[in-house]
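Input set for joint prediction.
Command: fold jointly, output tokens.
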Amino acid sequence: MTPTHHPPLELLLDYAAGAIDPAAALIVQCHGAMCADCRAAIATFEAAGGALLDQLPPAALAPDGLSAMLARLDREGPPDRPEIAAPADPVIASLPGPLQPLAGQTLGRRPWRSLIAGVRALDLDLPGRAAGAVQILEIPAGRGVPRHGHGGRELSLVLSGAYADAGGRYGAGDLQIAGPGDTHRPIAESGDICRVLAVTDSAPRLTGLLGIAQKILGNFR
Amino acid sequence: MDREALAECVERIAANADRAAFAQLYLHFAPRVKGYLMRLGADAGLAEDLAQEVLLTVWRKAAHFDRRQSSVSTWLYTIARNRRIDVLRRERRPELDPEDPALVPAAPVAADVAMDQSRRDASLRAAIAELPAEQSELLRLAFYEGKSHSEIAVARALPLGTVKSRMRLAFNRLRRALEPTL
Ligand SMILES: [Zn+2]
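tokens >
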């Protein structure tokens, strides 16, 4: 089950270089966890980053740098143990590794929220994210969201199941990038429940999968 | 310090919470990470503070390092890069920091894919040194100045397509340099 819709190479370079916002970085990390080819491409760019870091002339550290560092170490305690407990929540456990900590923490603070016709959303608090939105959407088989347009760029990564719209079929690991002006009406396929990590860039009006969810939430709050 | 010695330092931290090994890593990497963050726009005080946070992450997450998958330089670069994504592009709210997602262990590489890492490193460095000037500049703008591909196009008054094709050419050279020798 190899993804067929990949991030463009330039998005992988932007990620490797850190020239990307945290939400788009999360999408790239999750796609990388589900796609061996893109994982290898990211690793290639990151290896270049490591080599370039080595070539930088060292900056002078503060005179008390090492002692300040060791004092922080004292407050820190011993290194973390390597084992990571599998999340108790089965939905969280099914998510790609890079998403599990954030989704697990979020679920500790707030529940999934029902939107329309069995569609649920989990709003993720990506720390310090100024604008835009990050959500996991859960769409039962045969359900969809109404036809909608996009005010900004929307990145949708299929985590499980599949959906189809006029642009094609998107299965697990596939990334769909919708630009401003695109309209689409995704419908979840039968089979596994469709979960999507959806991210919108900051935009004056939020539309897309997320925009729909937010408008609905706004009406019910 | 060579890459094997650096990798041993990380492994000694993971195994024994070895502070002397940590001090060696700090002295090697903190000045470079600080320099990297200052290039990206942090002032000296913030860069020093963030460099300490990066090294602190090395301490906490040492058990996640796998020398078969990357060099210490690359691993540390990704930690610093992630701090940059989190901090320099937006307001600072460290109290809400989640676990760094890049530190979740990746699927292990197959043993037959793991290759002589030292040779791979040398080959990559040579490939970077031999890149045509415009491809080399592209990588430096991306990694040293933190410019996205579209920001590079604007900064150099180049069509986006030109930036993308140079990037792909550079990528192909890097990938070839990292391929296992048969
Ligand atoms: Zn891919």
